[in-house]
């Protein structure tokens, strides 16, 4: 395993940002290669500790000559966001200088060619970081972007061109749900990983073996040793299932038995009033149309001081907000419905 340090020039003299990159050289050039990164949203740490728990298994495989495909790992993908604190609170989702989400505005290339990347010489540090992450990931057959939600189940975002070919990956990782999407107008990292292959010849796209996904590892507070170990085992099973690592002791993944739904089936449930949220449901709960999902206490102690929110259709609760103060119009949760939402959204679901 080799470690290198990437340096991103800052926006003023004397300022730069660093992040480590780990590389395992594969013994078989025909084997699939893999790229894993975590904490692009810098405060989302389940993926960071999962990678930490994965590394001993990869080091052991390397020592025993069982790594067949090249593996590139970026455990802290966002040194800019990692350093951002405002009034004592960490701010890792948006770049404070531009107010841009760190997982937006990635270049969506017309083909998987680094020469097509825009010149970032006169751009901001966040643009230089995004360009470098795309450079590092381009050319890998498997690209995993590890995130987490507020409170939620473990789930994957997968482009429709890769499903059901990626069902073995979902099964190997042990996630609860898969959300399928087809349109990226915001420039997510996952979009930058799959959109370049949409209009190239089939022998280049290789959708039957390509993997690109945003991994949502439950909630932002789900950072502990047991979960990290389980998530690392899931990542390892995926690498073995796709032939990046050889391990005869692991069986092939079985069928995926979780929820699979298009993004358009998700109801985000905006809050009708501002106030304190009392949830009636938690991630994983099955609901039917008309079930009460939450109550907003907007005028405490007053007769009409509560507003109730009800399920618009049958489905499963995928996520909910971790904080209990809400603004009017702010989304309360994700309900994965059995049919298309009347409030269906395309592209990214949240800012």
Automatic annotation (TrEMBL):
Alphabetical keyword list: Hydrolase, Metal-binding, Zinc
Known cofactor(s): Zn(2+)
GO molecular function: hydrolase activity, acting on ester bonds; metal ion binding
Residues covered by the Succinylglutamate desuccinylase/Aspartoacylase catalytic domain: 33-192
Pfam families to which the protein is assigned, alphabetical: AstE_AspA_cat
Name of the featured protein: Peptidase M14
Organismal lineage: Bacteria, Pseudomonadati, Pseudomonadota, Alphaproteobacteria, Hyphomicrobiales
